[in-house]
Amino acid sequence: MPPARILVVGAALFLSVAVGVVVGGEGEGKGLVLSLERVSHEGMGLSQLRHRDRVRHGRFLQQQTFGVVDFPVQGTYDPYLVGLYFTRVKLGTPPKEFYVQIDTGSDVLWVSCNPCTGCPTSSGLQIELEFFDPSSSSTASMISCNDQRCALGAQSSDSGCSGQNQCGYTFQYGDGSGTSGYYVSDSIYFDSIVGNSLTSNSSAPVVFGCSTSQSGDLTKPDRAVDGIFGFGQQGLSVISQLSSQGITPNSFSHCLKGENGGGGILVLGQIVEPNIVYTPLVPSQPHYNVNLQSISVNGQTLNIDSSVFATSGNRGTIIDSGTTLAYFAEEAYDPFVTAITQTVSQSVRPLLSKGNQCYLTTSSISEIFPPVSLNFAGGASMILRPQDYLLQQNSVGGAAVWCIGIQKIQGQGITILGDLVLKDKIVVYDLAGQRIGWANYDCSSSVNVSTTTNTGKTEFFNAGQVENNGSPRNELYKLIPITITTFLLHIPFFGILPFL
C-alpha cells in the first residue's frame, strides 16, 4: 500500500486493538504486540473516495523501472465515511511514543524529527504529535554512507550522502508531496510472546528514517500522524529487519472488521487458520502483485482476456489495504457490471447515479445479487458477497439504492483490490513463502497463532486478549479489542451511509 495520508473531516472513532507478533524460542523468534487503531471521518462521498484513492495511488513511490500510473477522476462529491488505520510505536531510550500509519506499499519506517521543515505540529486526528531527537536517545546512532544498511535504503528511496557522512533519503510521491531526512539506528519496543508467556518491553535495534523535511499533503495538520510504518518487502522494512534478527517470522497478517464498529487485528507472526487459500506473489515487484486470472459472476466466468490482469509494464493486480475502494481495469470493469445487471435485472431497477451504476431494490441484496469470484493463480479464489462489491447510498421511499463500489480505471491496465473487498477476511502476507493468502473471517473474534518454544516444540495459541503477569501460562492467548474510546459510531462503507 502506498503511503496513505487520508483527508480528515468530522469526528473520529479510536479503537485500540491488541496486536500480536508471534515467533519462537531462541533464534526462532518471539511475538510482538502492537496496538492497531482506526479513525473514521464523516463527509466523504464516492467521488471523494475515488479522489483519495487516486492521490494514494499517485503516491506509489515513483520508480521508473516499474512505471508510475496516474488515475483520472470524474464525478461529484457524495457524503460517505472513510477510515484510517495506524498504530503506535515506541522508539529510543528512554522510549518515546509515535503514531505511524500502517503502509504495505512502502518499506521504511520513518518519523518526524527535530528540527523539521514543513512537519505538522498538530493533528486533526485528536492525537498528540511528537518529534524524534536522536541526541536525546542514549541508544541512537547515525547510519554512515559506507554502512551496508545505507545500501539497503537505496532499494526503497533516493539516497544521498551529507557532508557529515550521514546516509540520507528522499521519498517523492506521485501527487507532489515528499519527505527527506537521514537514517538512524535505535531501539524499537514491543510486547513479545516467547514460548507460552508474554514479555513486555522487549526491544530490538532497527534502522528507520528521521524526517527533517516534508512537503505537499504531508504538511497538512488535518490528517497528520508522526510518520509511516512501511510493511513492504525490501530489506530495510521493519518486518524484514526483525525477521533477520530472529525476532519474528517474515510474515504478517491483518483482519479489517467491516461491520459493527470496525477496527481489526494486526499480527506480525504466523497465523494458524486451516481455511486460508494462497496465491503466489509476482516476483521482483515493488508492491504486493498477484496473478488474477479471471472473474466469475454467479458461477459464470466472464469473457475477459487474462492478459488484462497480467503484470507487465503499467498492468497488474495489486493487493493494497490502504486503498479504500477496489478498481478494475476498463476491459474487466464493463463485462463485470454488465453481468451483475443482467443477473438482477428482473428483481431490481438499474439506474445511474452521478456516473455510478446503481440499483433500486426493496429486497435484501444477499437474496438477489450474485456472488462474485476473483480467481487467482494456484487455484485460489476470493469469494465476494454482495456487500463486498456494493455500497448503499440512500433510500427512496421504501427502497434502497445500492451502487457498485468497484470502480473503473479508464485508460490504465491496473487492478487494485482495496478494503472494500479485503474487509472481513484474514489476509496473510507470507513473505518467506512469497505468497499471499486469505480466508473469510469474523475480525471481531480472535485469531490462532503459533510459536516455537526453546525446546523446539510448536505451540498454538488463540490470539486475542493477552494477559501479562510476567509468568508463563498454559492457557490460550487472545488478541481482541480491549480499549474503545468513541467519538463517532459510524465506520466507512459498513455503517449507515448518508444520502447522495
From TrEMBL:
The active site is at D103, D320. InterPro entries: Aspartic_peptidase_A1, Pepsin-like_plant, PEPTIDASE_A1, Peptidase_aspartic_dom_sf, TAXi_C, TAXi_N. The keyword Iron-sulfur does not apply. GO terms for molecular function: aspartic-type endopeptidase activity. Residues 1-24 form the signal peptide. The keyword Glycoprotein applies. Pfam families: TAXi_C, TAXi_N. It comes from the Eukaryota. Belongs to the peptidase A1 family. PANTHER family: ASPARTYL PROTEASES, PEPTIDASE A1 DOMAIN-CONTAINING PROTEIN. This is Aspartic proteinase-like protein 2.
